[in-house]
Amino acid sequence: MAAGPTGPDPARPAAQPASSSPARSLWREPDFLKLWGGETTAALGEQVSLLALPLTAILLLRATPLQVGLLTALGTVPFLLIGLPAGVWLERARRRPMLIASALGRAVVLGSVPLIWALHRLSLPYLDITALVMGGLTTLFDIAWQSYLPGLVGTSRLHEANARLSTSTSGARLAGPGLAGLLIGALSAPLALVADSLGFLMTACSIAGIKKGEPPPSGAPGPGKAGEDRPGLRGQILEGLRYVTGHRLLRWTAAATGSFNAITMALNVALVLFEARVLHLSAGTIGLVFMVGNVGFVLGALAVRPITVRLGMGPTIVLSALCMASAPAVFPLAHAAVAVPVLVAGWFLRALASPVFNTNQVSLRLAITPPRLVARMTATMKFFVMGAMPLGSLAAGALGGTIGLRSTLWAIAGFALVPFLAVALTDVRRLRTSPDELRPPAQDRRPEPARTDPAVPATA
User: Fold this and answer.
1) If we measure between CA atoms, which residue out of 32, 170, 191, 139 comes closest to residue 375?
2) I want to staple 420 with a disulfide (CB 3.0 to 4.6 A). Which of 201, 237, 266, 325 is the partner?
């Protein structure tokens, strides 16, 4: 993220001094490739556990829709509980050790599930605790790598780096559910988590191999700063909140992305139950549906740059939001005779638009944020956009047990219009400026929080 206090502006990105660095291909940057590989392996592991944990509850422990909703919600509750202080803490600490520790922690926690199952002690409360701890470690990992990335590649290559990370995440989403379905069908749901645990171990090893030294965090006291009046934890959290809520581009990003995440988690709960109990699909078929549908993630990630160049950032965000909002209306149309093609079509449409939307909105919010606030902005955004996820899970579980699973899917389809309107009714649709041109000018990198909201860039 930020370089150490080596000059009058400690918020200057670490990659800035190397003038030749922006011209060098990321394919020739071994440290970025290690982060890329580690994050991709972690994303694959998250996709496997996303299906393996609820199917363990459904198939082995006969969980009700509400219990499945609670289990899924607990995996995202930590974003609400620790997200904001984690952002401040990660500004005061180095990010790479946290990336390694959180990956190792997830390997241990997931590896315990098949062990407890083999001892015939597995229960829903244990799965709930597993989901909660995994969620906490995922929260730390996600905030850490997004805050670590600008200092590793430089701000001029953020969009390129995010596009490549989005491509690999799309590949993980493509392979993860299918791999989970095959492992569950061949081994059982708990034993599928063994491979997942090994994947997180590989993530830790990959990130541990990064050789580039991480500069002292901008939030930590540096030489000559002993007398500086630095805000405490509460003050720094409030500063991040004020920055996000006071910036109109970040406000719509939080509203739209949070709503889309709530919809995603609601679909994760309702669809797995709908496929298993209404359409009577096997674990392998459920995994196949997600895997084939997730081909859209790969195609969408590959299309991000040409689409954004042709349409502009704002129109691209609006168009991708429309596609993501339309997809949920396809799922409740599935019936026994046409279940698989209908489910694949709906998931493909949503998967196609997701990396296009996410790459642009993440690049936008990183580009318009002063470097010293990146970790707090990321944590605050995570608080809002990930904090909405347990609401979606719980709502889907509660509705599924009362109005039925198909009706729940129709309700989700109706709510999906909310994030699209949050995007379409703002001036973001006229935004065509590239992320590199949206980086805050020097006068916006001052310590006063009231002056950290840069002006909205001119639109074409």
Assistant:
1) 139
2) 325
Task: Of 319, 327, 403, 395, give the one whose Cα is nearest residue 357.
Answer: 319
Tens digits of residue pLDDT in 52-85: 888 888 888 888 888 988 998 898 888 778 877 7
pLDDT, residue 14, reads 39
Amino acid 5: pLDDT: 35
- DSSP 3-state of 15: coil
Residue 105: CB atoms within 10 Å: 19
| Predicted local confidence at residue 215, as pLDDT | 64
**pTM summary value:** 0.64
- ∠ at Cα 248 (245, 249), nearest 5°? 110
User: Which of 421, 458, 169, 417 is closest to 312 using CA atoms?
Assistant: 458
- Contact between 386 and 261 under an 8 Å Cβ cutoff? The reply is yes
- How is residue 174 written in tokens? 């493509």
User: Is CATH 1.20.1250.20 the right assignment for the domain spanning 29-210+232-437?
Assistant: yes
How wide is the angle at C-alpha 83 spanned by C-alphas 163 and 33, nearest 5°? 30
Both tokens of 383, joined, read 């608080």
Q: Which of 284, 298, 306, 248 is CA-nearest to residue 428?
A: 248
Separation between Cα atoms, residue 31 and residue 152, nearest integer Å: 8
Measured distance CA(455)–CA(31) in Å, rounded: 34
Tally of residues, the chain: 460
Task: Enumerate the β-bridge partners of residue 13.
Answer: 2
**Which residues fall within 8 angstroms of residue 369, CB to CB, at 6 or more apart?**
243, 250, 377, 440
218 contacts 371 by C-beta, under 8 angstroms: yes
The residue behind tokens 């803490």 is 89
Residues 6+ apart with CB under 8 A from 133: 105, 109
